[in-house]
Design a protein that fits this description.
With 297 residues, the protein is α/β, with parallel strands linked by helices. It is 20% helix and 26% strand. It has one domain. The strands form 7 sheets. Strands 1-6-3-4 form a 4-stranded parallel sheet, with helices on both faces. Strands 2-10 form a two-stranded antiparallel ribbon. The N terminus is likely disordered. It is found in: Secreted, Extracellular space, Apoplast. InterPro entries: EXORDIUM-like. Pfam families: Phi_1. Keywords: Apoplast, Secreted, Signal.
Length: 297
């Protein structure tokens, strides 16, 4: 079994998200698929250590839009209120804590605890479209490299008027690994992720960004290099959240997200509380012990 001690492993993970409506980034499991397939650990490394999440904003974003995303990242490790307060639960932090199950399963023999801590890092604004409004995947990686390249996840967020080469013509999301930057004379291995989404019909793009960012962060943590946790073929893996596409609450079925909470003020559906009074919709995650989708509500 591969070791989970990766203190010398460079983890610069490139996550690219457009200000667009939610779209599936992988195959969706049907109920029969879930019964026939099991979630497996393929003996590769998981994301570990203290990881900063850096945001690279490409294009025009309002400060209020940027705050929604940055508050979500902060919410991954911060409870909205005191744990004793019922209004703080379910929370984004509780949702993210479910990923610890993946680490526990492979750490049991060594009696070691999961060691992954995400925190909001730097934010970089590129409001003048330095590379134009039509980007290639190589340019996306160039933008991602503006963030820290060691122990970091660099998230490139592109506004709705930016297109990406092969934009959903052959694929809408993928991630892999390649040789990273050379630091102190040593070249490290890095993982990268990018996703392209379908443009929204109204101002629901930020909700879609959060959902897809949450899904990709879960996949990045548990399958950063393509040989961690997933089910199905390696060429089209179903990961921690993408295996549960479309499932957000109990009772979900194709076309129905499940039984969700409703904000009495806005009427919007949600399933997780965040910092600063935020309410988010996050995807179900696969329970690695049962291979079933697990929801907060």
């Amino acid at each position: 079994m591969a070791s989970l001690a990766y203190s010398n492993l460079l983890l610069s993970l490139f996550l690219t998200i457009s200000l667009l409506h939610s779209s599936s980034v992988a195959r969706k499991l049907t109920e029969s698929d879930q019964q026939l397939q099991v979630f497996k650990y393929h003996k590769g490394p998981l994301l570990t250590g203290k990881i900063s999440v850096n945001l690279i904003w490409y294009g025009k974003f309002k400060p209020s839009q940027r705050a929604i995303i940055s508050d979500f990242i902060t919410s991954l490790s911060s409870s909205p209120k005191s744990p004793s307060s019922s209004s703080s639960q379910p929370s984004v932090a509780t949702w993210w804590k479910a990923t610890e199950k993946y680490y526990h399963l492979i750490n049991t023999k060594n009696n070691r605890s999961p060691n992954l801590a995400l925190s909001l890092g730097t934010q970089i604004l590129d409001e003048n479209y330095s590379l134009g409004k039509s980007l290639t995947t190589d340019q996306i990686l160039k933008l991602a490299s503006k963030g820290a390249q060691k122990n970091a996840i660099n998230i490139v967020l592109t506004s709705a008027d930016v297109t990406v080469d092969e934009f959903c013509s052959s694929r809408c999301g993928t991630h892999g690994s390649s040789a990273g930057a050379r630091i102190n004379g040593k070249r490290y291995r890095l993982a990268y992720i990018w996703v392209a989404l379908v443009a929204p019909n109204n101002d629901v793009g930020l909700d879609g960004m959060v959902i897809n960012m949450a899904s990709l962060l879960a996949g990045t943590a548990t399958n950063p290099f393509g040989n961690g946790y997933f089910q199905g073929p390696k060429e089209a893996p179903l990961e921690a959240a993408s295996a549960c596409t479309g499932v957000y609450g109990k009772g979900a079925y194709p076309g129905y997200a499940g039984n969700l909470l409703v904000d009495p003020t806005t009427g919007a559906s949600y399933n997780a509380n965040g910092v600063n009074g935020r309410k988010y919709l996050v995807p179900a995650l696969v329970d690695p012990k049962t291979s079933a989708c697990s929801t907060l509500v």
